[in-house]
Amino acid sequence: MAAVRSLSKFFSLRSFSTTTKRAYADQMSFTFAAGNQVYYEAKSVKQVDVPSFSGSFGILPAHVPTLAVLKPGVVSVYEDSGNVNKIFVSSGTVTINDDSSVQILAEEAHPVANIDVGTARDILSKAQSELSSATNDQARAEAEIAIEVGEALVKAAE
Question: How does pLDDT run across 142-158, given as a tens digit for each residue?
Fold first, then answer.
């Protein structure tokens, strides 16, 4: 029993020392890539705002380590220079690590400035038509996903 208490005390002290020794960086290393392009590769940025299924959230250098799924929407990157770069993502993942490094891997991503609102509305309209003509569960699910992306595209473009 004494050995169990000693072991328990060891792990408690070890957990405490790990927690207290953790140091946060003043800046974060940021990597953002999609299948079509690399947007940032180990660049230092001030803040990143991401759309997630658990709600949109901001990432600062002292952010707790996290793994999240991106939903369709706009990722806003606040660069050290003061510029804000807005990039639309269809889906993907965001990983925030202990060392304040952040990686975003998007299925597809495009700068918001390059999105044409008319084309975005056409994409949404086509997806809505596909939903109304869907004949099975798979076709309905695919159309609903396309509608979600289309609605986010229109919102980003407006």
Answer: 999 999 999 999 999 98
